Amino acid sequence: MSVRVRVAVVGAGIGGLLTAIVLRRNGVGVTVYEQAPELTEIGAGLAIGANGSRLLRRLGLLESLAEVAVRPVRIQFHRWHSGEVFCAHPMGDAYDRMFGAPFHTVHRADVQRVLAGAYLGEGGVLELGRKCVGVTEDAGGVELVFADGSRVEADVVVGADGVHSVVRDAVAGPDRPVFSGTSGYRGLVPVDRLRSVPELGFEPDRPALWLFPGPGRHLISYPVSGGRLVNFLAVVPDTDWTLESWVARGEVAEAVAAFDGWNPVVRALLGGVDAISRWALYDREPFQRWSSARMVLLGDAAHPMLPHQGQGANQAIEDAVVLAACLTGAGPDRVAAALHRYETVRRPRTRQLQLASRRNRECFQAPDGPAAQARDARLRQLPEDLAWIHAHDVRDDVDKVS
After folding, report:
1. Where does the FAD-binding domain start and stop, copy by copy (predicted)?
2. Residue of 1, 40, 21, 2 lying closest to 158 (CA atoms)
3. Domain residues of the chain, as ranges?
């Protein structure tokens, strides 16, 4: 039986759009409200692991995404000073066999474009330029208030509005961000600028993830946009830069200087951009509450995490699939139970990943000596250590609480 409720999704990011796609396919009336006046190229690279790609494949969305993504054939770890590879693991087909689905690196805007195209192509309603500034819930429903003064009523509101979520404030109350004491420089380098860097060992037909752990800082890099661009995130200790925005402009020269003495590949990546963003890295303590009777949180609004496990987008995908499964078939009198079921399924896993992401920074930034040796030993066991993340299938979680 179709759900006879009206769902308003606040935020047209990855989690919000995917939630809307699945709900609409399941017969649920849904509208997505996005504050931006248009969907643009804002953002940087991200990774879609097997735990996310298996879900996109079931929904018939992975093939379109793969056309604009990159499928790395290996992951390799380099010494910070010399650039020497000290640990590597095959990916590509080997990863698929181990975890049951592919691994892709992709530009966030490309993922959003694929999902928006699928949603709109199937008749979905997306309203742009609609900044939600308040939500009020009562027994009869939820009222959304927008910056232009307009108001909309819905039976259920999904807060997919990111780390600065308005819906979260209504559901869980105000919270305090936890500053990591670090900031990240993000950039996209045209691949042609890297072909002349012999130390990189660049092979267009054998794309790789490059990680450079080092004392007090680290850099991760991988190709996106079909291989035309190389994305990087360089994390440095920084207690002065506290702006929690991943699109704030930084200075290229400062990024290069922060890695003085590092190998030529790192310096080529950092110096190869025309513009660089600088992002103070925060997360939140795991929330005790994700939902009310008619409102629910998803993605970064529910479980903001540091980027050191590469799971932000994947967890939003998992959220979307579980939430849609829980809401499907729930009549108006069962919405609160459906939202509680979703929260029960998702909170333990996302809490574990939030904490694991914190620990990973310590691993990647270990000082030379015994701590770095222990890190190297851990990295040699990386596929086994990551199985709990990448081999996971959230469909099993839903079945357990059915």
Report:
1. 5-353
2. 21
3. 6-71+104-177+286-365+388-400
Q: If DSSP codes are grouped into helix, strand and coil, which group holds residue 161?
A: coil
**Residue pLDDT, tens place only, 97-134:** 999 999 999 999 999 999 999 999 999 999 999 999 99
Residue 144, amino acid: L
Task: Please name the helix (run of DSSP H) or strand (run of DSSP E) that holds residue 234, with its range, or none.
Answer: strand 229-237
d(CA 183, CA 91): 29
Q: And the tokens for 255?
A: 């990024």
What's residue 297's pLDDT? 97
| C-beta of residue 27 within 8 angstroms of C-beta of residue 331 | no
Which of 59, 126, 115, 181 has the alpha carbon at shortest distance from 313?
115
Q: Which CATH superfamily is domain 6-71+104-177+286-365+388-400 in?
A: FAD/NAD(P)-binding domain (3.50.50.60)
Q: Tell me whether strands 74-78 and 208-214 are parallel, antiparallel or unpaired.
A: parallel
> Tokens 């849609």 appear where?
324
Task: Please list the alpha-helical segments (H only) found in 223-330.
Answer: 252-258, 264-271, 312-327
State the Cα–Cα distance between residues 398 and 388, nearest whole angstrom: 17
| Average pLDDT of the residues in 361-381 | 94
DSSP-assigned beta bridge partners for residue 221: 210, 232
Known catalytic residues are: 222
